[in-house]
TrEMBL record:
Its main location: membrane. Keywords: Cell membrane, Membrane, Transmembrane, Transmembrane helix. It is a multi-pass membrane protein. One of its GO terms (cellular component) is plasma membrane. The chain crosses the membrane at residues 21-47, 53-72, 84-105, 111-130, 151-173, 179-197, 230-252, 258-280, 292-310, 316-336, 348-371, 377-399. It is found in: Cell membrane. It comes from the Bacteria. This is Conserved putative membrane protein. InterPro entries: MFS, MFS_trans_sf. GO terms for molecular function: transmembrane transporter activity.
């Protein structure tokens, strides 16, 4: 008993410390990134005046992550995840600061935006699986649902708050100060992650139990539908990527509104998402994770289809879209993370990121071209149809394995693993 008590106590203490530090780290990092990408998107659109030009900016952010996420995911499962996160943050800080230096020297804004965001994406390809591996490694499994709701709320609040302010700040001060802030946000994130400390030793509970009673039966591990859960989670990445592109064009071109409206819309979406994330704990007690993941996504897509009808409809629907997106996003993330073995979580989330962004790149090119050839509302409806087909198809593909597991395992265990 005494042999296990110290490591167990250290693990609990480490989990609580990680929760307190990783949430604000996620907030500042996503806030800085949102300042960066929103300001860059506005610069590129004013320079090129096409949806596809903005789309290529987001594609430049996505290509390195598609190409490198799987490779870096394997690295994450072999190297200290905390130090990988710190290293990625520090490299990102230097890269982010290079863009305002480029602008101060008189370099072309659109070229600098493409290059800087491309380089930031390379380090993001390492940071994403490393941070998710760190979460799985440090946060106790029974706390993952609650932590993910807090983490997603903080991260998306940072993203949406910064995006809502970015439109106004670009008008008042220009884009350069936002790029400097992004550089500082990476440094703060590195400090917070480093403060988590080293990974505590784990108590060898399973080994000691087997040594005490060798005749005790060993329960066979339940096979998890990782690939389908990964697709369910990656579907949200597709929506985020494409919506960021076509929403900018919808506001600036179709509705003929200024950059200020981007801020208002992002603020409304942020309110909906924060309320949804805050309510996730109570909602998840009444519904299974798989149902929240599916119906939350479908609710978001219904709101998405309404948004391009009129700018009043956009502002009315987007808070509800944010609420529904929060339910689907957090549920899908928690399902995938709980089902992922700790020793493979880096490559699983790396592969999931590559899948989501790869599909997102194709959808962005296709739907941006559709918007330029016809009108932007058709791109919104095309996105809703695409994501709806993915989530419905994935849900029905999970029906058989979930039904089989329900007969073998209690409901609460099912929801905590592969529901």
């Amino acid at each position: 008993m005494s042999l296990d008590s110290t490591p167990s106590t250290d693990a609990v203490r480490s989990s609580r410390l990680a929760e307190r530090l990783l949430v604000p780290a996620g907030f500042v990092t996503t806030a800085g990134n949102a300042f960066q990408i929103t300001a860059a998107a506005i610069l590129v659109f004013h320079a090129e005046q096409t949806t596809l030009a903005v789309g290529w900016l987001f594609i430049a952010v996505s290509i390195p992550q598609v190409a490198l996420a799987v490779l870096f995911g394997k690295l994450v499962d072999k190297v200290d995840r905390r130090m990988l996160c710190v290293a990625a943050d520090l490299v990102s800080a230097m890269t982010a600061f290079a863009l305002p230096v480029w602008l101060w020297l008189g370099g072309p804004a659109n070229l600098g935006s493409y290059i800087a965001n491309f380089m930031l994406a390379c380090t993001a390809a390492l940071f994403m699986p490393a941070s998710n591996g760190l979460i799985k490694e440090r946060i106790r499994d029974e706390r993952l649902g609650k932590f993910n709701s807090h983490f997603e709320m903080a991260s998306n609040a940072g993203m949406l708050l910064a995006s809502s302010l970015a439109g106004f700040l670009v008008i008042w001060f220009g884009a350069t100060p936002l790029f400097v802030f992004n550089s500082l946000s990476f440094i703060l994130s590195a400090v917070l992650v480093y403060a988590i400390g080293r990974k505590p030793a784990k108590a060898p509970v399973a080994e000691e139990a087997a040594a005490t009673d060798p005749s005790a039966p060993v329960e066979a591990p339940v096979r998890q539908p990782i690939k389908r859960l990964a697709l369910l989670y990656a579907n949200g990445n597709i929506g985020l990527m494409v919506a960021n592109v076509i929403l900018t064009t919808l506001i600036l071109q179709t509705f003929n509104q200024g950059a200020w409206m981007i801020g208002v819309v992002d603020a409304l979406a942020g309110v909906g998402f924060i309320v949804g994330a805050a309510a996730y704990g109570k909602v998840s007690k009444r519904f299974k994770g798989i149902h929240l993941a599916v119906f939350g996504t479908l609710g978001n897509l219904i709101c998405l289809a309404i948004q391009p009808l009129h700018y009043i409809a956009l502002m009315a629907a987007i808070p509800f879209a944010g609420f529904c997106f929060a339910q689907g996003r957090i549920a899908a993330r928690t399902l995938l993370m709980r089902a992922s073995p700790e020793e493979r979580v880096g490559r699983i989330f790396g592969s999931t990121q590559a899948l989501g962004l790869g599909l997102g790149v194709g959808a962005t090119v296709g739907l941006s071209a559709l918007a330029d050839a016809t009108t932007v509302p058709y791109a919104f409806w095309g996105l809703a149809i695409l994501q709806g087909a993915i989530v419905i198809g994935t849900y029905f593909s999970l029906a058989k394995p979930l039904s089989a597991q329900e007969k073998q395992r209690p409901a609460e265990v099912l929801e905590a693993t592969a529901a």
